[in-house]
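New to this. Comment on this protein:
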Amino acid sequence: SFLEMSAPPPKPACPNFSSGPCAKRPGFNPGVAYADAPFGRSHRAAIGKNKIKESMRLTKEILKIPKDYLVAMVPASDTGAVEMMMWQLLGPRGVTVCHWESFGSGWFTDAEKQLKLPKLRNLKAPFGELPDLKSIDWNDDVVFTWNGTTSGVKVPNGDWIPDNRGGLSICDATSAAFAMDIPWSKIDVLTYSWQKCLGGEGAHGMLVISPRTVQRLESYKPAWPLPKIFRLTKGGKLDKAIFEGDVINTPSMACFEDYLDALKWAKGCGGLDGLIQRSMRNFNVVKSFVEKNPWIQFLAKDPATVSNTSVCLVINDLSKDQVKTMLSLLERNKVAYDIGAYRDAPAGLRIWCGPTVETADVNALMQWVDYAHTKIKNGDVKKMRITTTDGLADGAVKALSSAGHEVVKKKLSKEELAAGALAEWDAIIIRSATKLTAAIIKATAEKAGSKLRLIARAGVGVDNVDLKAASAAGVMVVNSPLSATNSVVELALGHLLAQARQITRADRTLRDGKWLKNELVGHELAGKNLGFIGFGRIGQALGRVALALGMNIHVYDPFLPDSVLANFNATRHATVQDVFRACTHITIHAFLSPQTRHMVNTEMIGLMPGVAPDGTKCGNHIVNCGRGGIIDEEAAAAALKSGKLNSLALDVFEVEPCGKSPLFESDRFQASPHIGASTIEAQNRVGAEIAGAVIAALDGSPPAGNLVNKDVQPKFGPPRAAKM
C-alpha cells in the first residue's frame, strides 16, 4: 500500500454491492452459464418451453412453494408483477396499502391515483419504522412489501397475518425472496424479480399465487380495462397455460438461461436454507461493525426489523456532503459501487448483503468504510484547489469537481511561477507547455504556507518537470501513460506513409501548379527495416502496425526483456549506432535526457545505409513523435540539404513553439505542431486518466501506474512504507 500509517486495507474482490441489479453469483462466467442457451430459438419450441418449465420447477423446489400454489413468469420485472395483480384483484373489498419506503409508497399511489379505489387505507410509517401492522382489518385486501429495499426495514415474521383472513395478502417480496423465510400460509400473492437475491437479469417478473387468488381471479372482473400483459384469465377462467410454460409475451431466452444458472447455483448452496445462511453471514459482518462503532447505526429502529439483504445505515457524525465524499472515495477506489442511500431516504449507506455476495467482500468493505470515515473525520479527504495551466478536457474538470475539488483554469507566466505562485494550489495539472524547473519547484516549496502536494502531467512525458526537485520537496508527480498511445501511433504511421509516398511534397508542388507525376516516385514500406529508438508502449503499438505492413523491426531498448521482442520477430541491437547502420527508416520513442539530447546528429545520420535489404534505393527517413531535442535540428537540416537524409518528419521540436528553423528550407521536411495526442479520443482519455490519478493521489493513494517519482516521501500525510 502507498501509506504506511492509516494504509488503505485490502479491497473486496468484487465491489458490486448494488441493491439492484445485484451482484452475480460467485464464479459466474457467461461463457459457461449461457453455453446451452437456445439463442435464436422460439420460446414456443420444445427446447424453449422446457427451459421455462424447468425454471418454474426449480423455483417451487428451492422456495418450498406448496404444491397447490402456481408459479409464472410475467412481463416488466417485479413492478409489472405487482401492478398486474393490483389491477386484476383489487376492487371487491376495501384495500389497505402498508408502506414504509419508496416502492411501497408507489403501490399506494397506484391504488389512489390510477385505480381510484373508494375504500382505501393508507397505512404508512417513516423511513426506519414499520406501521402498526396489528391495526390492519383483514377483511381488506392488503398490499405490502416483505422487505423495504430502500429503507432496510423488513417485517420480522408473518405472525401479524391471520390464517383465516377475509382479504388477500399481496406481497412484494422482490428483495426478500431467496434470502428470507416467508411462510406461505400467510401469502396469497408473492412477486419478485430475478435481479435481486439471485443476481439475475432484469425485465422479467415472477408471480406466485395461492388457490384463494385463483378463486378471486375467476370470480371477479375489474371495472377497468386490462392490457394484454396484465391478463391471467381467458373466458372467465384462469389461463393455466401461463403457469405451465407459456408466457404472456416473448421473453428473453438469455435471461431465462441466466435464471436457470442462478437456480442451479442456489440448489448447490443448500437451497433456501443455504441462501438465507449466506445472507445472514453477510449481514452479521455489518451488524458486528455497527455494534463496535457508535458513529454508525442501522436506519431501522427495531433490531427485529433490520433487513439482512438491503442493509441501510446512517452515519451520525458526518454531514450529507461528507457522506457523498465517502461514497465517492469508495467508488473511485473500486471498493464499492452504488451503495448510496436511495434518493428519498436519509443520507447514508445501503449495502446489499444478499446471498450472491461473498462474506469476505463484506468484511473488506466494512474495513474500507472505517478507513474512509477516519480519513474524512481527520480532514485527510477534503476540498483541494487545483489549477490547470495548459488546458484540460471538460470531462476531467467535471470528474475533479464531482470529487469535491475546486478546479481553476489559469495561465501562469514564467515570472509568476518563479515567484512561487503555485504555493497557493494543492495541485497543478499541466501538459507540455508549462515547464516546472528545479528553481520553480524550490521557490514554491520554500514559500510560507505552501500547499503544493501534486504535479500532474496530462500525457506521458515528464521531462518538463524536474523530478528530483519534486521528490526533494515532497511533491508527488503523476502522469497518464495509457491514454494517447493510439493517437501518437497513428500520427507516426501517417508520417511514415507520407515520407514513403512523398505526400506532403506532392501536395505543395501541386498547389504551385506543378504536375510532377514522374518525379514523385515513392517506395513501399513493406520489406524495409524500421528502427525503434525506445520500444515501450507506443513503440510496441507502432511495431504491431509496421509488422502488419511487412516491415522488419529493429530495436534499441536496453531495458526490454527478450520475450517482448520475440513477439515482433525483432532484431535487438546493442547500441543506437547499430540500429542506424541497419535501418533506412528510424522512429524515435525515447525520453529526453542528458544522454539522449542531440543523440541523432550528423555522425548518427551518416551511418544510415540508404538501401533497403531488398535492394531498393529508398533513401533514409526519420520520424520523431517522441521528444524534441533528441534530434540535432541543425545537423538534420544539413543532412536534408546534402541528400544524406531523404526526409525528416517531426511532431516535436527542441524549442516549442519552434518559430523559424533551417528545416523549413527543405521540401523534404514535414512537420506537425506537437499534435500526437491531439485527437478527440485521446483528449478524453487523457483527461479521464489524469483526473482519476489526481483524485486518488489527493486521497493519499496514487495509482502505481501513474506515480512517476516513486521514491517521493509526500510532504502532506504519513510517510511511505520503507521498501523491504
Remarks:
- The two ends are 13 Å apart (CA to CA).
